[in-house]
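In the design runs reported in the main text, the only information available to the sequence generator was the tokenized backbone. The following block is the verbatim input for one such run; it is reproduced so that readers can re-run the procedure and compare outputs position by position.
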């Protein structure tokens, strides 16, 4: 079966059950500073899971491109990837467990024809002050009994590490405001894999050797963490289902290695050809190359460039790790592999083919930079240790120099070792520890305030960006539009296309206009409008392609007959009710971020 067939079947299945398909959201999230990448289908839906009205209704379905940076070091086995496509269906306060569970079973066993005896279930056994999900257990119990199984042999329970889902993981790690819930997962059992020696695999949730593959995860989003660390039931009970296309395909084909399914085999073949080595003998390296280059292709297709910051840093890390593995297998030219990856996805993601040259350029430029970095590191060592041209002669370098290679030249300790150097691990670890505590202090500060996109300050900042956007367009014309934004309780960041820096006078004028609109205490409200109507009234629709026929438009300012309010913009919310809640708006910085884009930083609420 092809990935595209799986996607079509899945979407059809849920459409037949009253779901509307929502588009694949951008890989780089908008208005969500808490995370660098879209890593699950629910991420763009958080406002709606919390109760905002979704323009497409209460039953949604889609396929979402996802990237999980936390899994970079997991890649190198039969089932982990950083980039994957997630099938998702949601109930926004509509149906719940007793509908979702039987549908899921029907989907997997009837639509996709998975043998029932190979499927195993896990549910949340309770913990962290949250009760056992016996409701899910009982629904599965009855269903499996009817199917002729002994349910006790099929259903397992596990704690929050395995059967609880939130964007921040277990309940203890969730910041106040974050939503989460117990989940029920379906595992596929591969008979041709034996449990590894140390695998605690009797309960599929704890299997670590790939014999059990998690193919489906239905989260029952029903809790929100409170300021006092307790959990409150959400006003609406939601379902958030997610399942990876790549893993489902492996189960359908009963192929115990996702890299041996049609999504990856053309790429693996290209890697074999370019390195002259076989997959059989070099599985982990080739899995890393295939996955990391795949992720790099999708990230390069956004406007992210490799750098030392945020998404750019992840892209750099992915590419360099892929290149290390590629070079170590004797590979020289990665272009054919990039080409194969784009080919493999062209049916589901045709824009990759259109942007192929640009994607390739981003990747090859970074490759060149990396080659220069390698050469500089080599020179640094040669100079320091004063040996002629032969680098291989030096085995032992000081921990200090190893740390310089790490912090200045960007090499991980493993990479330094693979370059042929040894150093005192303990001394190195100590240097690393003090370095990490400095950067951690920075990171904590950045994410302070928990779910940044729903704190009071963030909502104020969000409405302020609408005012800023309108003020800029009034001053410079409607060709100017937003190209990105990120809002935290600490500051507002707003990107837009403009080919020069604004003068201090212009910045002052913009700031004054926004403050004027705040003072006017304009009402903010939204309406659900047909797309055509929204366009007619001049609503700013930045991301048309990602909306359906009905759009949600936020208005700032009263509606008088025949006149457009001050601002009208497609947006999911949330916003303040009146602009005076924003209190004040102050621009603190302007930056040129390249490609004809400027960035403004501002603070609100002082
Ligand atoms: N949010 C859940 C996940 O990412 C289910 O969609 O697994």
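Verbatim output:
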């Amino acid at each position: 079966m092809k990935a595209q067939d799986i996607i079509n079947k899945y979407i059809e299945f849920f459409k037949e059950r009253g779901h509307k398909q929502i588009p694949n959201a951008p890989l780089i999230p908008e208005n969500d500073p808490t995370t660098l990448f879209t890593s699950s289908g629910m991420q763009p839906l958080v406002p709606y899971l919390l109760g905002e009205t979704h323009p497409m209704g209460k039953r949604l379905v889609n396929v979402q491109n996802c990237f999980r940076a936390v899994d970079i070091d997991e890649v190198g086995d039969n089932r982990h990837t950083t980039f994957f496509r997630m099938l998702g269906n949601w109930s926004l306060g509509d149906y719940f467990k007793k509908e979702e569970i039987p549908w899921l079973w029907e989907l997997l066993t009837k639509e996709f024809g998975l043998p029932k005896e190979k499927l195993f279930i896990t549910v949340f056994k309770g913990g962290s002050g949250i009760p056992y999900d016996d409701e899910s257990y009982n629904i599965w119990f009855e269903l499996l009994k009817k199917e002729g199984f002994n349910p006790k042999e099929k259903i397992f329970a596990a704690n929050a590490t395995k059967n609880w889902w939130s964007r921040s993981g277990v309940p203890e790690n969730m910041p106040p405001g974050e939503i989460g819930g117990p989940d029920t997962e379906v595992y596929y059992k591969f008979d041709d894999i034996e449990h590894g020696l140390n695998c605690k695999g009797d309960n599929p949730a704890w299997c670590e050797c790939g014999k059990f593959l998690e193919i489906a995860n239905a989260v029952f989003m029903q809790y929100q963490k409170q300021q006092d660390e307790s959990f409150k039931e959400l006003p609406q009970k939601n379902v958030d289902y997610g399942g990876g296309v790549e893993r489902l395909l492996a189960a359908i084909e009963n192929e115990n290695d996702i890299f041996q399914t049609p999504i990856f085999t053309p790429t693996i073949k290209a890697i074999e050809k370019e390195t002259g080595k076989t997959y059989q003998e070099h599985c982990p390296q080739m899995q890393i190359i295939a996955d990391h280059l795949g992720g790099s292709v999708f990230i390069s297709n956004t406007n992210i460039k490799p750098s030392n910051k945020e998404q750019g840093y992840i892209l750099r890390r992915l590419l360099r790790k892929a290149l290390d593995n590629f070079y170590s297998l004797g590979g020289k030219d990665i272009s054919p592999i990039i080409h194969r990856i784009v080919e493999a996805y062209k049916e589901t993601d045709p824009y990759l083919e259109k942007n192929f040259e640009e994607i390739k350029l981003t990747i090859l430029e970074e490759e060149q930079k990396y080659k220069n970095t390698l050469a500089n590191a080599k020179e640094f060592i040669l100079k320091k240790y004063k040996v002629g041209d032969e680098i291989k002669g030096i085995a032992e370098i000081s921990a200090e120099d190893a740390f310089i290679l790490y912090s200045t030249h960007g090499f991980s300790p493993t990479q330094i070792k693979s370059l042929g150097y040894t150093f005192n691990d303990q001394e190195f670890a100590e240097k690393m520890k003090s370095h990490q505590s400095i950067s951690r202090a920075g990171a904590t500060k950045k994410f302070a305030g928990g779910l940044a996109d729903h704190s009071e300050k963030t909502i104020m900042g969000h409405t302020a960006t609408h005012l800023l956007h309108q003020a800029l367009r009034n001053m410079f014309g409607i060709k100017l539009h937003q190209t990105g934004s990120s809002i935290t309780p600490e500051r507002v960041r707003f990107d837009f296309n403009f080919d020069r820096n604004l003068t201090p006078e212009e910045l002052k004028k913009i700031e004054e206009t926004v403050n004027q609109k705040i003072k006017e205490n304009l009402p903010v409200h939204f309406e659900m409008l047909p797309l055509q109507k929204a366009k007619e009234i001049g609503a700013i629709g930045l991301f048309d392609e990602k909306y359906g026929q009905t759009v949600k438009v936020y208005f700032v300012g009263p509606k008088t007959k025949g006149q457009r309010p001050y601002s009208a913009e497609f947006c999911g919310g949330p916003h303040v009710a009146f602009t005076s809640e924003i209190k004040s708006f102050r621009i603190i910085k302007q930056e040129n971020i390249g490609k004809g884009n400027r960035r403004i930083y501002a603070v609100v609420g002082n």
